[in-house]
UniProtKB/TrEMBL annotation:
<keyword id="KW-1133">Transmembrane helix</keyword>
<feature type="transmembrane region" description="Helical">
    <location>
        <begin position="31"/>
        <end position="50"/>
    </location>
</feature>
<feature type="transmembrane region" description="Helical">
    <location>
        <begin position="98"/>
        <end position="115"/>
    </location>
</feature>
<keyword id="KW-0812">Transmembrane</keyword>
<keyword id="KW-0472">Membrane</keyword>
<protein>
    <recommendedName>
        <fullName>DUF6545 domain-containing protein</fullName>
    </recommendedName>
</protein>
<feature type="transmembrane region" description="Helical">
    <location>
        <begin position="6"/>
        <end position="24"/>
    </location>
</feature>
<feature type="transmembrane region" description="Helical">
    <location>
        <begin position="170"/>
        <end position="200"/>
    </location>
</feature>
<feature type="transmembrane region" description="Helical">
    <location>
        <begin position="62"/>
        <end position="82"/>
    </location>
</feature>
<dbReference type="InterPro" id="IPR046675">
    <property type="entry name" value="DUF6545"/>
</dbReference>
<feature type="domain" description="DUF6545">
    <location>
        <begin position="246"/>
        <end position="303"/>
    </location>
</feature>
<feature type="transmembrane region" description="Helical">
    <location>
        <begin position="135"/>
        <end position="158"/>
    </location>
</feature>
<dbReference type="Pfam" id="PF20182">
    <property type="entry name" value="DUF6545"/>
</dbReference>
<feature type="transmembrane region" description="Helical">
    <location>
        <begin position="212"/>
        <end position="238"/>
    </location>
</feature>
Amino acid sequence: MQTVLFILSAVFWVAAAVCVPSAIRGRRRPLLLFLAVFALTMTLMPQPVYRPVDALLGNGNVTYFIFHALTIVAIALLDVIVQEAMSPRGLTRARKRATSLVTSGIIVAQAILFFGSDWRVTDDIAASFIPRWDFTAYAATTWIAMGIFAVSFAIACLADLRRQRRPVTLISLSLVLLACLGVLTYAVISLTSAVLAVFYADYLLVGWARTAYTLTLLLSPISLVIGLGLTAAVDALAAGRENYRDRVLLWRITPLWRRLLSDTPHLSIERQLSPRQLLTVSGPGAHLYRRHVEIRDSLLLRPEQAVTPAELVIIELAEQRTQVGLPATPAALVGPTR
């Protein structure tokens, strides 16, 4: 189980890393923040991490409280993502304030229930459901929040499915829906088991309920993270492929651009790039476009300049690359489409 938790944590950190390029460009920043918080939450679960961290915090199972608090923060961030995607005008200031207040209120309530109790000093706090109402009330704040959000997020995804046509977006939404079902199942089983543990001292979570509990705990986060990050990953791969094609063509067209404009440098507004800069410059497509335009202008002004058939092919390829238009598609709940 510990190995599985480590693998899950690694998957979530990788998903967050995939979103970094989009976040740098100003897109999917709430998604990156959610993935980072969620990855940190899952990283605290394995015992080889939990126990040393808790020892640093005084061995009072404070790490358990941090885990629940981070879960509430992750739910709030996911709510921000949903509201930004579903609201025509984006997330309003009032909505942000309400989300912050509700999140803070839940965490404060958790802190009062946690630090005001004595059950938190048990040796294995996460091993079973503690048969006490104050523990049930504490843990229920997280489970109820998870269940409510799973339902609202699923409704939003179902509404979004009807207006999306991009296959990768449909797959992403389906995975998120599956995750919502798993989260709701996990929350219901957890809350029910905690209540039964209070009423029946010998209660144990066994059979199909234990199987469903374990599977949803492991598979729901994976399905959610993949669903939320799939569009970003596909877009990043597509952007990388386009960037590579632009850079290759920029490298090929540069000698022709330099030769044709060597006698008329005043016609060019494009800056000179060294061979190393051609390989590393950001936005190679913009440089390709300007050099292609300047080559065309130079040939119009001085048609007597000699151009080989191979160079004409390069000019035509640049024409195709710089004139390609992308079709408009609806914005997706799981991330902007390209």
